[in-house]
What we know:
The complex is a heterodimer of chains A (456) and B (352).
Chain A: E1 9-20, H1 24-28, E2 33-45, E3 50-54, H2 61-68, E4 76-84, E5 90-94, H3 100-106, E6 110-113, H4 127-137, H5 143-156, H6 173-185, E7 191-195, H7 203-220, E8 223-228, H8 231-237, E9 240-245, E10 248-254, H9 255-260, H10 265-272, H11 321-336, H12 340-347, H13 361-371, H14 381-396, H15 399-407, H16 413-416, E11 422-423, E12 428-429
Parallel strand pairs in A: 3-8, 3-9, 6-7, 7-8
Antiparallel strand pairs in A: 1-2, 1-4, 4-5, 9-10, 10-12, 11-12
Helix pairs in contact in A: 4-5, 4-6, 5-6, 6-7, 11-12, 11-15, 12-13, 13-14, 14-15
Chain B: H1 16-21, H2 38-48, H3 50-68, E1 72-74, E2 77-80, H4 98-102, H5 128-164, H6 166-181, H7 184-195, H8 199-225, H9 229-236, H10 241-253, H11 255-277, H12 289-295, H13 297-301, H14 310-339, H15 345-348
Antiparallel strand pairs in B: 1-2
Helix pairs in contact in B: 2-14, 3-5, 3-14, 5-6, 5-8, 5-11, 5-14, 6-8, 7-8, 8-10, 8-11, 9-10, 11-12, 11-14, 12-14
Bound molecules: iron/sulfur cluster.
Amino acid sequence: MSRTTQPILEVDGLKKYYETGGSFVDSLLGRSNTVKAVDGVDLTLQPGETLGVVGESGCGKTTLGRALLRLIEPTEGSVTSRQRNDDGTVDELDLTELSSSRLRDLRTDLQYIFQDPFSSLNPRMTVGDIVGEPLDIHNIASGEERTQRVEELLDTVGLNRSHAYRYPHEFSGGQRQRIGIARALAVDPEVIICDEPVSALDVSVQAQILNLLSNLQEEFDLSYIFIAHDLSVVEHISDRVAVMYLGEIAEVGTTDELFTAPRHPYTEALLSVIPEPDPGWEGNKILLDGEVPSAINPPSGCRFHTRCHRVIPPEDLSIEQETFRSVLTLKLYARQAESTTELVTLGGTGQLQEEYDETDPVAVDRVIRDTYEIPSQLPDTTAEETVSTSIERLVEAEPPAAAEKLDEVFVSPCEKQRPELEQTAETQVSCLLYTDEYNTGQPVVTDQTGDAAADD
Amino acid sequence: MSTKRGRITIDGFDADVVEQREELSDWSEDKDTNLESRWRRVAREIRRDRLALIGGTVVFVMLLLAIFSQPIKAFGVTIQPISITPYDPGQQFVAGTTENYADPSFLPWSEGSLLDYPFGTDTLGRDVFSRVMAGTRYSVTIGLIVTAISGTFGVIYGGISGYFGGKVDGVLMRFVDMIFAFPGLVLAIVILALLGKGYWPLVLAFTATGWAGYARLIRGEILKVKQNEYVLAAKALGARDRRVLFRHVVPNSIAPVIVQATLSIGTVVIGVAALGFLGLGFPPGTPEWGTMINAEQGTVLSARGWVRWWVTVFPGLMLFLFVMAMNMIGDAINDALDAQGGEGIDAAGGGG
Ligand code: SF4
């Protein structure tokens, strides 16, 4: 993919914040919270390209897709759309600045395919009216011509012409998704944002829809932004992939680069859990701890530091990275836990803990170290001291007090410093490991394929 | 053992087999009988409901009466010449004289047959049968007109409120709350006191109080419906708000309003009759059912008043019949709409 043309769509610093607890009284009392659903996203989309956007649910990918088209108003940032005119000139429009009537016109160039084929079609309209609606709205065709165009569109997406007179509920999920695609195609768009178009469908149907989408791309020279929650779906149809985590882009790169040499620890973890049909394969699955943190008050510094398996230990501490991760997890959980029992449950692997005496420092020490997999004796003296004092505090006081103690020593740079999206040899990565300060010179993450030579 | 991916690939993704195997759906042309629209299906359901049929017949007959009981004149030109009432509803002393009626035990049938005055005559010797027939023109039409106007207005008002939400919603709904803060009938009485008695003042009085209920009802429904992705889809296509609201949102939230409207036609009719009974609705002498009962209060309460029981029973009975019929229709509509509440989702199932 070495296109040197100008991107057809350019997203710059796009943000979408929501206020929660939005009642008038709440905001008077300053009780409302800001949800940072999308927090400064930069992306480009080249003509004819498919850009996959991947992330766990709640990472803001759908919000991103909708804010892109101003289906919801973005809080900040710009979205530049470039349209080639027939005479070769290029129109450059910032979507976020457009008046609503200009925006309506532009909807003929930018379209959206929805995730849920059941709720995205009006149950009270016939398929013909659903597909024909964009034609009415933009006065593209009417009467006989409209009927013909609708039938053509149904043909294009692999439906029967006679389907025009039926209602959506008479169709299966896959067919409904085809109707949704036909509707998006009706205005002859340049860019289509596909918001998890197959995740609501049966696996066997998913492939059909994906095939359809890629055929249409060829036929109509479309550019896609393809949102998905798992990497395996976008692998086949994307030219480039962007991995999102909590409203930010963690890594962007061509599909090849990203799949063979993921740089961001999050991408690495996502990739490692893609099932492999090879029974002889024994790749390491990296299971991330916990869930995606809430986008209300997202974690400081690098947003991934609460779960990152490569989180950077502070320089002055001679401690294994793995052990550091364990202590850091203990610290993060201790901040929110209300009792030692809760702390044990949060960190536990799910199996039942043996009974222990909560007032006995020795027992608590053992249980905590067991659940968080912290060695009973840390090599570094300051580290060891801090951990044991903080566990003692658990007995005397609440877990947050223990967290405070740990905060004196166990602070990762990842908690304090927010990484920027930076170009590495391959992908663009937002991780401190790849900044000059922490870069050890070698790619931290080795290639999935094992042929590290390619990296040099 | 290896950590290398891709040693075995399963080529299902772009295999032609997958594409060819595609089954577009499980219906075939012969299952193609079910093309009727939702409202036609509702209509069929209702026609199967016996009670609704009875109710429908009653209402239909009453509507015919409203049209044909008396000639209709507009701007001095008679546009409906038929008059099927045996007497003019205002004609006094159709049987007997003033002196006869001074005697409380006088029966109008003393000279003719029972069929001459099937519902008897009132204190002023007017034929009750003619009057209750003519009364349909007041009660029934007011019920329909008030419901149509307040329903339409309420749907637009509540639609705008619910659809735009936020501050617009806040302001518009506070106004609805204000309307609700008045007891409906009292507000109607105030309006009548300001405008005077009569048909159109009554329509206005009941519309002014009635629309708020529809507004609130549809707003709640719209808050749910507008979450649907097809609303966003319409916006993504570039549809204007008016189109989104009236083509996508309202049609999907209108069902409870229609049920509510059918049921409330009866309520309005009762309200009109209540005001009539209080002497507030129509000028005395108007053959509106409530007003008729009001005019005969004295008769019924006087000594041996029970002898002329028919003067109040028949207007009351008409009222009862109409409201009952309307409620039976309303219930049937409710059931019919309910029966297809899940339409769309469960009919299709997932995937496929
Ligand atoms: S910055 Fe730190 S926490 Fe964030 S991904 Fe990189 S190593 Fe992990």
